[in-house]
Amino acid sequence: EAGVAQSPRYKIIEKRQSVAFWCNPISGHATLYWYQQILGQGPKLLIQFQNNGVVDDSQLPKDRFSAERLKGVDSTLKIQPAKLEDSAVYLCASSLGQGMLTEAFFGQGTRLTVV
Amino acid sequence: GDSVTQMEGPVTLSEEAFLTINCTYTATGYPSLFWYVQYPGEGLQLLLKATKADDKGSNKGFEATYRKETTSFHLEKGSVQVSDSAVYFCALRTSNDYKLSFGAGTTVTVRA
Questions:
Q1: Residue B97 pLDDT > 80
Q2: pLDDT at position A1, please?
C-alpha cells in the first residue's frame, strides 16, 4: 500500500515570499491533516479535513496560511507571505476516518527554511 | 484544552538497558492514547495505542498502560537496542473534537 506522499521534501525561501506544499493521502482515506513541527517541538495541528470540508482550523494563521482539499483527495498548504518563524517541517497525515481508534499515517514531511 | 506532557530528553542509554518515557495528559473528554515513533530520516509512525483505562498497548517489545487514576501512559521497554534510537511522541485523541494532539517528543539514543 502506498503511503502518504508529500512534495517537495525541502524548500528554502526568503521571507515575504510565498510557498506551497502538496500532499497525496493514502487512497480511500477521508481525513487529512496538516501539522507544523518546529525543531524540538511536537507536531501542532494546523488544519484537519474530512473529505473536502474543514473540520478544524483553529490553529491555522489565516492571515498568511491557507489550505484546500479539492475533490476530497489531494491537498495543498500555502504560506503567503512567509516569515522567519515559519521555518519548520510541515507534515501531512491521513486516516480512514476521525474515530477514536483510527490510526493516522504520516508522510515524510517538507522541511521549510525561511531566510 | 487537551494536552500531553512528556518527560524532557534527550535520553541516552546503553544497549540492553531499561527504558521509561513518562507521559501524562489533560483531557476534557475520555481520550484514546497513542505512542508514535520517528526514526532518523523517516516519518512518524504509530508504535502502540490504548483506548480505555487499564488497557495495555504493546509492540516491538514496547509497552504502555493507560492509567486513568494518574492520567498517565508511560512507555517502557525492558531491553533496548541501537535500532530503538528515535524520537518518541505521546499523543491523544478525545471524543469531543477528535483532534490528534502530540507531546513535545523525547529523543532516545541507544549506544552499543
A1: no
A2: 61
